[in-house]
Amino acid sequence: MYAYDELDRTLINERVSEFRDQVKRRLSGELTEDEFKILRLQNGVYLQLHAYMFRVAIPYGTLSSKQMRRFAHVARRYDRGYGHFTTRQNIQFNWIKLAELPDALAELADVGIHAMQTSGNNMRNVTSDQWAGVAPGEVEDPRIWSEILRQHTTLHPEFSFLPRKFKIAITASEHDRAAIKIHDIGLRLHKNADGETGFEVLVGGGLGRTPFIAKTIKAFVHGRDILSYVEAILRVYNQYGRRDNIYKARIKILVHELGIEKFAKEVDEEWKLMGDVGLTLDHSAIEEVRSRFSYPAYEKLPHMPDELKQAAADPLFERWRKNSVAPHKVQGYSIVTLSLKPVGGPPGDATADQMDAVADLADKYSFGEIRVGHEQNLALPHVAKRDLPQLWRALDRLGLATPNVNLVTDIIACPGLDYCSLANARSIPIAQELTRRFANHDTADMIGRLHINISGCINACGHHHVGHIGILGVEKNGEEFYQITIGGRADENAQMGVLIGPAVPYAEVADVIEDIVEAYLALRDRPEELFVDTVKRLGVEPFKERVYATR
Amino acid sequence: MTSPLEQKKIRITGPSVVTANRTWDGAVVYRTADRGWSTALADAAIVGTSDDARALLAEGVADDVGAVGAYIAPVEVKEGGVVKPGNLREHIRSKGLTIDLLPA
């Protein structure tokens, strides 16, 4: 966990006072909506179909049990008893009243939570691997660098009025769980030949109506130089990025139009021109941030405790353990993913009662720490293996032990037309129906790793382009239709999915997905060949034929 | 459902209402004939021509303290004068979520 100092607390509290005054002036009519909109957006407040939506940051996906309990309280006191975890390590409350928002913000500020960098044309919440600091083989904890970037960019005037929103993600593991290649800047932490820590810097990734995979502009930037290098990128973007057309304003368009070589050259020239602007991080500055991250006092525990051996006789426990429990860097401990994708439930939602219970379980079994991943699930990052059976029983009672992590029912979905003012079609009921169709865990296990991502409009909050199967809601003559893509992925081998054919109506989506999965099962050359690899090997044609031959 | 945020020209082809979100809490509201807002669609002033729609919208937009983001939305007037939302988006705004919040 990262410990806030007095400066952080003052900044957050001042922000609450400022927003309280802005809301008061808005409600009195002193501020018009046009004047107020940019202010509310800078505090994570959107206006959706039914109500205001309040988006709160969970920097690099790390939460304390105390903070989770405060989310539960906000959900109960100010909302309708639940919250929605998003694909960018935020939580959204869907029914909050503007008049009560300053009080909710103040209660969150008490536990070091804020809503800065969650909306508007600024640097957004810097995200990272939800297993940061605990994943075996990790170069080092990427959250140190996320925090350094967060501190530098929060309320930075140069980054507060960018041409468009700007997203950074950092990973330090070989397997990318932070989806860095679909971010404006993706940073891959690694060491050079001299053993020094630095970053491969990728730029220009993003989804939405013009999707691009980020490209590398520098193979290694030393850690001490990362702030100045990122600033050079942003200066080039600020100078050349388009402000005349919202659809062409993201940095990905600039990178595409200039070409990656020219863009990289511009950044390098800007970086040289900047010279020493006081952004070089000396060792003590990095260590100061590092020192404010606390790590658990792990016990020396056996690799295979008796409790685990005994529990292995229970097939339900074993199914869950194999699916939801991952290796930890410390012997005797595990990382446990808590599925927020129960059969028939809205993906990523958690009730206030569940949040409170997860906080209690984190205190009991995970040193009071919780993580949030971009796949819209939670994780307990430091669970002793001997505690896994007890934890599983507790999670099962809470509906948080569905053994479907990374399987066909672990669906990423945006809120869609049920909530969102931008959506063209619903996402959640499609996801719910699919989880019912594939509810049998044996079937899901047999299918293997398969990511379905659903977006209710081209803005792609559900990351449909990079789903193994992507589903995009569109409108045709007032009716909901859905385009299906296959073969996308968001990891270190990220790529966009390929459209398989004409959009299908709402009522046929689940049938179509079943057809695609059945085709895969018939086409894969062995059970271990993942869906996405079968698509890579065979292309979309066999799937297209299966879906459209009888339609 | 094309977002009304993209509504550029005001041209209606059937009965319509002006709807918005109430400023203090964001609730869905409809412009009424007595120059107020109501959370009930049944209370909404219904217009049938583009000129009337324009006028009703201008009146709603002018009340910036009462409601936010006013726009014109289609409705259907059923037998007996019962008013129903004219598309899925408005149905969801009027009736609420189409989903189960708890696993089912």
From TrEMBL, chain A:
Q: Which InterPro entries match?
A: NIR_SIR_4Fe-4S (IPR051329), NiRdtase/SiRdtase_haem-b_fer (IPR005117), Nit/Sulf_reduc_fer-like_dom_sf (IPR036136), NO2/SO3_Rdtase_4Fe4S_dom (IPR006067), NO2/SO3_Rdtase_4Fe4S_sf (IPR045854)
Q: Which UniProt keywords apply?
A: 4Fe-4S, Heme, Iron, Iron-sulfur, Metal-binding, Oxidoreductase
According to the UniProt entry, its GO molecular function terms are:
4 iron, 4 sulfur cluster binding; heme binding; metal ion binding; oxidoreductase activity
Q: Which Gene3D superfamilies match?
A: Sulfite Reductase Hemoprotein, domain 1, Sulfite Reductase Hemoprotein,Domain 2
Where on the tree of life does the source sit, at the highest rank?
Bacteria
SUPFAM superfamilies in alphabetical order: Nitrite and sulphite reductase 4Fe-4S domain-like, Nitrite/Sulfite reductase N-terminal domain-like
Domain spans labelled Nitrite/sulphite reductase 4Fe-4S:
119-272, 408-547
TM regions (residue ranges): none
Sequence ranges assigned to domain Nitrite/Sulfite reductase ferredoxin-like in this UniProt record: 52-110, 346-396
Q: What is this protein called?
A: Sulfite reductase
Write the lineage as a comma-separated list. Bacteria, Pseudomonadati, Pseudomonadota, Alphaproteobacteria, Hyphomicrobiales
UniProtKB/TrEMBL annotation, chain B:
Q: Name one Pfam family in it.
A: DUF2849
- The superkingdom of the source organism is Bacteria
UniProt xrefs under InterPro entries = DUF2849
Official protein name in the record: DUF2849 domain-containing protein
Lineage, highest ranks first: Bacteria, Pseudomonadati, Pseudomonadota, Alphaproteobacteria, Hyphomicrobiales
